[in-house]
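Example 4.3 (complexes with small molecules)
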Amino acid sequence: MSDTSLRVVWVYPDLLSTYGDQGNVLVVERRAQQRGLNVQRVDVRSDQPVPTSGDIYLIGGGEDRPQRLAAERLRRDGGLSRAASNGAIIFSVCAGYQILGQEFINDLGQREPGLGLLDVVSTRGEAERCVGDVLADIDENLRLPQLTGFENHQGITHLGPTARPFARVRLGKGNGTGDGTEGAWNDTVFGTYMHGPVLARNPQIADLLVKLALDVNALPPVDDRWYEELRAERIAAATAAP
Ligand code: GLN
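Answer. The structure with glutamine bound is encoded below.
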């Protein structure tokens, strides 16, 4: 695959990168390089245009005010939406997930339009924040191992008819609507509430993004021991009696 190049775009690290979500771009980059791919990583600050020619876009979580600013700038810029209509693969976390939806409630308590790339609407939960470890079973169509991560969000997310639940929680709140769903996806756009960073805890999701971007069914195996140790340790901690 050495002639194949992959353009990975990390969107707004200055506004959206809580809980080490930047680790997601490092994991995608590393796992693609381990397969001999030539990776071009582009970090796009919020005062820069989002390039439309990326293969994979990653967008992280954020506090409420930076989340509103990011949504305003992404709407104004239009680059991420154009990339999505070109078929780019987009993976989003928490605030990033809410921004990709139809709308969310911003830090001023107002309805803020999202980019409408995922058919979800986020509101503010009445109850306390959803905080803690999560274990969930990922949509079986994606053939991925159990999802591990942690969540910390006030928003709750309702799925519309064209968004499929990314996973179903065994432990934790996920979308927080009480229906047991966590995250959402359509064929090219993914959203999750999981931090961790989630792709370090679930490297097969990073591989899925690379496969979708390259339109291949499989990638050569790589050494997963370090990831497996991390997963085992976090799953044990999450399931340990309080
Ligand atoms: N501000 C959003 C919420 O609380 C997202 C939080 C986050 O990204 N961790 O719902």
